[in-house]
Write a structure and sequence with these properties.
heterodimer, A: mainly alpha, ABC transporter involved in vitamin B12 uptake, BtuC, two-stranded antiparallel sheet, 14 helices, 4 strands, 3% strand, B: alpha+beta, Immunoglobulin-like, 4-stranded mixed β-sheet, 10 strands, elongated
Chain lengths: 371, 161
């Protein structure tokens, strides 16, 4: 005998499982008319943001598959990508070759950082998210040391437009004019005036296909097994620690590539802050898409980008039109980014406890039926 | 630790080698150079070569540009090998076209192409009409004032407390 749920319970369960996307749909439903933006403008903005952010968010999927939660350590990959971009800017390599070269430079740095991060996360099992978050802060200090004091002294930088007036260290902002929108403009179509960067979307599609393929491989299946139960996976002969490290390495490398694609769209590198912001916003967007700490898929990525960035686009103007202050909208969107992460984490725990409770009740009912 | 020269080792070794070679190739094809197109009167070995009154110049397949006497403009190109096409008319309004190819030094950021010199010596070696150009130091040296480096967005909040 199994416990049967009523229709109301089922509906409440669906709503409970999709609280964050529903919340965002409601916010957007109120915000869009208030903002007064045209549909054409909003669609254009969303397409741009899908091409800009999706790669970064997809990089979060593999550690979730391996049961390591949301990889806040993706900032390590972002730092590697930025180092690649600083070097190609100094060497004067532009266009698509510049983007690819930056990716090649970032790869070994990402691999080393990812491997190191994975090792630490293995030591902090069960507390991966907070650990990776703090690793991001720690590594930020090393990054600042390298970029602020190493570049121009230990690492040769020739360009005066990159160096601080004192002769070493990189400036606050680096102009990426040489690679700006290189990939986006490679194959750009404008149906109904909406710019669609086909080349960038193609790269994102290839990554999505890679993720889908990867899940079916031996390593992907191992990661799924490790994510479901560590001890069972170990008993099955899977190298648990190694598998977890590989998942973080892959995520970090993709985060590096994602950061390069993100910055080629923006066109300016905020040397000391870009990477810290991107981790938080990528995680928030994924959670808005309906993902949880233990479960995420590609659908969550795109739904998350659309809803989260729709809110980002409309909230300043909605705030301005509502009470005459755009600043309120700015505060609102930052508040919502952090708030959504909090709500998702709380809901995840609530849901986990509820499922455990439900499973316990079901077991009790079965036992009662058998006696 | 003993290095095992297995098949997998060699595959990885070759893969890394291919990526390195590819990186070098990207460096060569993606390196950007600025070509200054100069239509000013110059003196070479004591001989004065006068600027052209009006000249049309095109680098590779980029947009052609027209330069009057004493004009200077620039084109940004990637890679090392390029072509230049110059169309001008003489005092009898007869139109001439000169086409040349030239190769830029890999690490040179900026070169100066003297159009009157090229027109006067169309068959000469490129070293005669194409020279390396270093921008004046005042043009590239930033102001002495120190730029404040912001490494933490939240530091503003802390200082305000």
């Amino acid at each position: 005998m199994t416990l049967q749920m009523t229709k109301t319970q089922k509906l409440l369960r669906i709503i409970g499982n999709n609280t964050v996307p529903i919340l965002f749909l409601v916010i957007c439903a109120f915000g869009i008319p208030l903002s007064g933006y045209s549909a054409n403008y909003l669609v254009s903005e969303i397409v741009i943001r899908i091409s800009r952010n999706s790669f970064l968010i997809v990089s979060l999927l593999i550690p979730i598959l391996a049961g390591m939660g949301l990889n806040f350590g993706m900032t390590l990959g972002a730092m590697a990508g930025q180092i690649g971009l600083i070097l190609i800017s100094d060497w004067g390599i532009v266009g698509i070759p510049g983007i690819i070269l930056a990716m090649i430079i970032s790869t070994p740095i990402s691999v080393i950082l990812g491997w190191w991060c994975g090792k630490i996360l293995n030591m902090a099992r069960g507390r991966e998210m907070v650990t990776s978050y703090i690793i991001g802060f720690f590594m930020n200090g090393i990054y600042q040391l390298v970029v602020l004091y190493g570049m121009g002294v230990v690492i040769p930088i020739r360009s005066n437009s990159l160096l601080l007036p004192r002769g070493y260290g990189i400036r606050n902002t680096v102009n990426l004019i040489g690679i700006r929108r290189s990939l986006d403009d490679l194959l750009l179509i404008r149906p109904f005036g909406i710019p669609i960067p086909l080349a960038t979307l193609f790269v994102i599609a290839v990554l999505c296909l890679f993720i889908l393929w990867f899940k079916k491989t031996k390593l992907g299946q191992d990661m799924r097994a490790v994510g479901q139960d560590l001890e069972v996976a170990r008993a099955a002969g899977i190298k648990v620690e190694h598998t977890r490290i590989v998942s973080i390495v892959i995520s970090t490398v993709f985060a590096g590539y994602g950061m390069i694609l993100y910055l080629q769209n923006i066109g300016t590198l905020n040397t000391y802050n870009s990477h810290m912001q991107i981790g938080m916003f990528s995680v928030a967007a994924l959670l808005v898409g309906g993902a949880s700490v233990s479960k995420a898929n590609i659908r969550n990525v795109f739904l998350g980008v659309i809803l989260f960035h729709l809110m980002f686009v409309v909230s300043p103007m909605a705030g301005k039109n509502l009470i005459g202050q755009a600043q309120l909208g700015e505060y609102f969107r930052v508040f919502v980014s952090y708030g959504v992460i909090t709500i998702s984490l709380v809901l995840y725990e609530v849901r986990k406890k509820r499922d455990q409770h439900y499973a316990g009740m079901q077991l009790a009912a079965e036992q009662e039926a058998s006696t | 630790m003993k290095l095992a020269l297995t098949r997998i080792f060699w595959i990885r070794f070759v893969a890394i080698l291919v990526i390195l070679v590819f990186s070098v190739l990207l460096f060569f094809i993606g390196k950007q150079h600025t070509v200054l197109l100069d239509n000013k009167t110059v003196t070479i070995e004591g001989e004065e070569i006068r600027a052209l009154q009006l000249v049309e110049i095109q680098i590779n397949n980029l947009e052609p540009m027209e330069l009057a006497a004493r004009d200077r403009d620039k084109e940004e190109v990637t890679g090392q090998k390029h072509s230049v096409t110059i169309i001008y008319t003489d005092s009898n309004w007869e139109e001439y076209t000169i086409e040349r190819t030239f190769k830029l030094p890999l690490m040179q950021e900026m070169v100066l192409l003297s159009i009157p010199t090229l027109v006067a010596n169309p068959e000469a070696d490129q070293s005669l009409w194409l020279e390396n150009y270093e921008p004046p130091t005042y043009a590239v040296t930033a102001a002495d004032s120190e730029e404040e480096v912001v490494t933490d967005d939240l530091s503003v909040l802390l200082t305000d407390i």
